[in-house]
Structure prediction request, 698 residues.
Amino acid sequence: MTTAEKVGQLVQTGPSIVGAFGVSFEELLNMVFDGRISDEEFQRMMSESGQDYHEEILRQGGIGSYNGVTDPEVIRKLQRIATEETRMGIPLLFGSDVIHGHRTVYPIPLAESCAWDPQLWEKTARMAAKEASRDGITMTFAPMVDVAKDARWGRISEGAGEDSFLQSVFGAAKVRGFQQDDLRKPGTIVSCVKHFAAYGACEGGRDYNHVELSGERLYEEYLPPFAACIKAGARAVMPAFNDINGIPCTVSRKLLRDILRKELGFTGVTVSDSNAIAECVDHGAARDMAEAAKKALEAGVDIDMSSGVYAAQLTDLVEEGVIEKAVLDEAVREVLRVKYELGLFEQPYRFCSPEESPEKENRALCLESALKSMVLLKNNGLLPLQKNVKVGLIGSLAESRADMLGAWALGGRANDCISLKDALEEAGLPFVRIESDLSEVEDCDVILLAAGETKEMSGEAASRAVISLSQEEKGLIRALRESGKPIILILFNGRPLAISDAAPDADAIVEAWHCGCESGHALVKLLYGDRNFSGHLTTSFPNASGQCPVYYNHLNTGRPAGRGKFTCKYLDVETEPLFPFGFGLSYTEFEEEALEVQAENDILSVRWTVVNTGKRDGVYTAQLYVRDKTGVRACPVLELKAFSQVEIAAGKREEICFELPVQSLARYENDAWTIHHGTYEIFGGESSKKLIRAETEV
Ligand code: BGC
Prediction:
């Protein structure tokens, strides 16, 4: 291969939108964002635009992969050019953000994590991989396993919440689902785990922002999910946009070579985040594009997503000897290896075979995932509803199909989604749709109020400083309260919301998230009690925006929050979250008894008994937490170490058993994992705030 052909393998590009805009496409997006042109105007321009796939550059061997091409016909055409019309005939990779489903959209990751069900997480990823590969996609930029403790960060919606262990189990399940154990198996796509690393620790929850992080927290909290995904076989990793302690991840040799490859044993391909190599100049970490290219390649970024910097710079830099040829060869080898592993050299079109549509059968799994993702946050006995009560349905989200898709649902279609209103109608349940005339509530028995966020309000570039309900929604709740009718608040949103001012006015609160195509069906089944709730939160809900970040595994401090004046608290906001990590109600109740711990042969055997004291069968989500009380340094007040689920019939009891390896208590001290021997508290329960405990020596 010539140097230019090698560089071509490292170039990932997307289609350019071409049309008579008079400005660049990026500027056009900015114009929509700041209101200089309307959505309608934008849609009109788009309908008159075309897509340029840079076919001539492809023919010259200048492109190794595409991002964002999802039309199977176009994929076929580009793959044909790559394999038949270029000198080397190397097949292309096609990457896309298949984040929570493809055609069939299942709940956003934050929602789905509330199912605490690794089998479900794997199954939905499998379903997405099958649908995506059928459309020609060979790589998904997922899972996102960024631990996210700050609800202001919009991308909290894309991962499994605030806990590192939960993210690890979630991420590994997703990788298995996307990749199975062999990329040659049918319906399998490469999983590109992101964003390496600590993107979720961005200061103030503001997207792309600086991250200041100690080595201990990096290793103990932010790296383990990546380690778990790599262990599960992930063949691609995406470095994060952010810097850590001043070094952008894109040019961090320590992160991408020493930690990722040497310590975590990663042997796959790295794909930069979109335009991230060019942005190293804005970071102030590279003088110009040439230096950005050199630093990124030498740090270990194999593929340049969308910045064009490798395409413009690398050939000259290598030929002039500024970059060693061996460094280029190594990156090219990573790219070619993954193409071999996918079997693309033998069967370049194996990913592009629109056979019978499996979407119908996928809806059942989609429904199951939505049923398990929704969380009952409050219930004064109003739920489940009787099927003959007359419901007043209020709020625009109650009939929005598009918003059920949530952030990042590129392959999804709004009309495939069932809204709450659709589902009530379909089930023939008595309801009136109340648009503006609130006096209509007089004829209703109960109010269903849908509030929260549209799909654009979370996800990338959607950080919010104030994460409460809107003023209109708050006003609406107050006005409805006056009517004296019971209110069920349904939250559709992509992040925890600070609703402490609205919560007291609601008789019941359901966290319905953005749960994808089957949102409405799932909600109706749960509201009317055809199915019991089983979801539990994986992020804490703050009382107020100013309480962010609030998370369960904080340190105790020397002056833990309490009634005294000089304690670690706010004067004007509760210290505890409104709804804590692990919390979720159901139509039954569970009580825990007698937690016991035995330490033997480097295993902690933990068991407790649970009784279903209510009148309905239910699913108990067992959560095991530990606290190192006398560590070398201060340790979190709680840390999740294991979880499982068990169905318990009404009135029955079950024993919960965990075997926890002592190794899982290791901490990262002085550049090594060490186990601190001393006293540990062990906790069990189904919410981080309602636990029974025992102590043990380790
Ligand atoms: C996001 C990534 C995503 C990529 C490709 C970026 O803006 O940060 O998460 O995979 O775009 O679409």
About this structure: Residues 67, 97, 141, 194, 273-274, 460 surround beta-D-glucopyranose (CB under 6 Å). The longest strand covers residues 590-600.
